[in-house]
Design goal:
Low-confidence stretches: 111-132, 147-155, 157-169
Strand content: under 5%
Structural class: mainly alpha
Mean pLDDT: 83
Largest sheet: none
Length: 685
């Protein structure tokens, strides 16, 4: 209560933040729209309020709020005594050092102290000068000694590292050493050669750990960065900024491994260190990093809170516009896209791009934010606009990135995904195959490669290449077989579930039913509760796949339960169309013909309104619609729908595709007359 009265804020307003006792002087004047108002309510300016709270009041409140009972006041009476001491200008019990108590005494007895000080000053001056000069010389000598020892240790490390890889001096005669050989030798010898200079050892481990991280060797990076963090935290070194730097890199290692929970824990430790040190710029960066780590862990609400804090601090510290604020806005767009909040994502991405334009940012900065914008507008149904944005990125990519950069493959893959959404299966297949080839050239066995294989499998199956689809589904599953962590587990369950439903769809064996069930259940469970007005794309895909799986099992009620509410896809017209198609299939299995016809018609109309008349999705749905029309005696409308479906299917599907055989049977039935038409439709259904 006292903390809130003095600062205008609760001490632990963020339930997700580490429970480190807050510093009242900082909390009272941190970034915020009403900082001035809160200070004025306490008859102060932000500057004077911070000055008043800094020092003894900060210490008293931190002790009273400390989560460790051994660090808190033993009684309310002791707490009250220290508060009265502050009011009276006396020393508080929490501080017993002599320098502090002298300073408090001087503040209370200023005039007497001045006279006494003047009398003693002359005596102290001569002696003090001599002592200071002696101490300064000693410190300089110690510094020079430490620097010489550090230089000698570094030299020994470098010499021994190169000597160990000399082909004339090692057991690898005739084999030319690589830079990686020297790096490995240096890492192995660092502890031995730099044992006498722990600060230098920490610096070398940090540098080597970062190098291994950039090379993609997560195990070696983790080993070195863990040792660096422990070394920097040791009392003999005590460099918390460097400790935080090493832990931040460790968080990146864990994220690369897919260990998202561990990455979040480490990111929170970094934030706690910087909050304790109090440098606002580092705190803002830590909030931003924590937000991105939470996105990978699918913890969207927590990520939103962290990025909101990062945005507030970036605005307060750097102003508007600033590259730091633009970076946070971009990350908020990425979060909104991941969470299925596409209008928000568009707003943040546009603000980031506008700010980058004002700052005359690099092309690579525009590249990333334009990608987020394209993803947001594509999901809202503006596919042509999204294709233009991603096409511009691909034109700029060779200028911005090297030819073998993984981001080129990802840009190609994202454009393929928009073609896939449109139902342009031919171009989608080409894009996925190009992205996979680029990733395979770099031997990238990551979630993005597995995702590309899975999307390629969907396209190949729709086009009628069932054998090719089976190979692609297997490749996706194999790449995720040994992966863990939230982001990796998500793609792992997606790969298993998609492959399992594919095999069931075509009457094949390979994945046990309980394994497919487990994959679908785990996939959905990873997202937890979601708001009624938005649904992440990956969660929506899981629910639609589960609905289909239940229909394949002859369980229309289970399929109905699996579907999400229509309102959840309000911002995603193509997702709404897919939901309506599966709702029509459920009505069909239940024998609810009139309801099925309505939903088929609405699904096709909505898909074509967004993707155009040539979309393969609407054409494929039309086959089900035609059969339902024929079964219920609507032959004229069935013929009309057949004429609309045929051009897209001929253009997008392979001649031997199963849907082409269905279309041929329907064409023959149409020619034979209404009775035959109804007979073929009944058989298909």
């Amino acid at each position: 209560m006292l903390f809130e009265l003095l600062t205008g804020r609760k001490p632990f307003s963020d339930p997700l933040a580490p429970r480190e006792p807050p510093q009242a002087s900082r909390v009272a004047t941190d970034a915020g729209a009403n900082t001035g108002e809160r200070a004025a309510a306490r008859a102060a300016t932000p500057h004077t309020l911070r000055k008043t709270l800094r020092g003894d009041i900060d210490r008293i409140l931190r002790a009273a709020l400390d989560p460790d009972p051994t660090h808190r006041y033993r009684s309310a009476a002791r707490f009250g005594e220290d508060l009265r001491a502050v009011v009276a200008g006396r020393a508080i019990s929490l501080r017993r050092d002599r320098t502090y108590r002298v300073r408090v005494f001087l503040r209370r007895h200023r005039l007497g102290a001045v006279a006494a000080s003047l009398a003693a000053l002359g005596l102290m001056a001569t002696t003090g000068w001599a002592l200071w000069q002696t101490q300064l010389a000693t410190e300089r000598a110690e510094t020079a000694k430490r620097e010489a020892l550090a230089a000698e240790s570094i030299s020994e490390l470098l010499i021994s590292s190169f000597a160990a890889t000399d082909p004339t001096q090692s057991d690898k005669a005739g084999v030319e050493p690589t830079a990686r050989d020297v790096l490995n030798t240096g890492a192995a010898k660092a502890s031995e050669k730099l044992a006498q200079t722990p600060a230098v050892l920490g610096r070398v481990r940090l540098m080597l750990g970062q190098t291994y991280l950039n090379l993609g060797d997560n195990d070696k990076a983790a080993e070195l960065l863990t040792a660096a963090a422990k070394g920097y935290a040791h009392p003999s070194v005590n460099q918390p900024e460097k400790t935080a730097e090493a832990i931040a890199m460790l968080a990146q290692v864990e994220q690369n491994r897919g260990n998202d929970a561990k990455a979040v824990e480490l990111s929170r430790r970094v934030l706690a260190i910087h909050q304790k040190l109090g440098r606002q710029e580092d705190i803002a960066i830590s909030y931003n990093t924590l937000g991105m780590t939470l996105i990978s862990a699918l913890r969207y609400d927590e990520a939103d809170q962290a990025l909101q804090s990062a945005q507030n601090m970036a605005f307060f510290i750097y102003g508007n516009p600033s590259k730091q604020l633009a970076r946070v806005l971009h990350n908020r767009a990425a979060l909104a896209n991941s969470a299925g909040r596409y209008s928000q994502a568009e707003r943040w991405a546009r603000e980031a791009l506008e700010m980058k334009a004002k700052l005359k940012a690099t092309q690579s900065a525009f590249f990333t934010s334009r990608t987020q914008l394209a993803m947001a507008i594509a999901k809202q149904g503006r596919l042509t606009e999204a294709e233009a944005a991603l096409g511009k990125n691909l034109e700029l990519a060779p200028v911005v990135y090297p030819d073998d950069d993984v981001r080129l493959a990802r840009a190609t893959q994202r454009l393929a995904m928009v073609h896939h959404e449109r139902g342009d299966l031919v171009r989608a297949q080409q894009g996925y195959e190009q992205a996979i080839a680029a990733n395979e050239r770099q031997n990238l066995r990551e979630a993005a490669t597995a995702h590309a294989y899975r999307m390629l499998a969907e396209v190949l199956e729709l086009r009628g290449d069932i054998a090719g689809a089976a190979r692609a589904y297997r490749s996706a599953e194999e790449r995720m077989a040994e992966q863990d962590g939230a982001s990796h587990r998500l793609e792992k369950w997606q790969a298993i579930a998609s492959h399992g439903v594919f095999l069931t769809r075509h009457g094949k064996s390979g994945i046990p039913r309980d394994r497919t069930e487990q994959a679908l259940t785990e996939w959905i469970a990873m997202f937890g509760p979601q708001p009624a007005t938005a649904i992440p794309e990956d969660l929506a895909a899981a629910r639609l796949l589960l609905a289909e799986y239940r229909l394949l099992q002859g369980d229309p009620q289970g399929a109905q339960t699996a579907l999400f509410a229509d309102a959840a896809a309000a911002e995603q017209p193509l997702l709404q169309a897919r939901r309506r198609y599966w709702q029509a299939r459920i009505h069909t299995m239940r024998g609810e013909s009139a309801a099925a016809l309505v939903e088929y018609a609405r699904a096709i109309e909505q898909a074509e309104a967004v993707a155009g008349a040539g979309t393969a999705h609407a054409a494929l749905w039309r086959l089900d619609y035609i059969e339902q029309l024929a079964k219920t005696g609507h032959a004229a409308e069935a013929r009309k729908q057949y004429a609309a479906a045929r051009p897209a299917l001929v253009a997008q599907l392979m001649p031997a595709a199963p849907p082409m055989a269905r279309m041929k049977a329907l064409a023959e039935a149409i020619a034979a007359g209404n009775d035959r038409f109804r007979q073929v439709a009944a058989t298909s259904l």
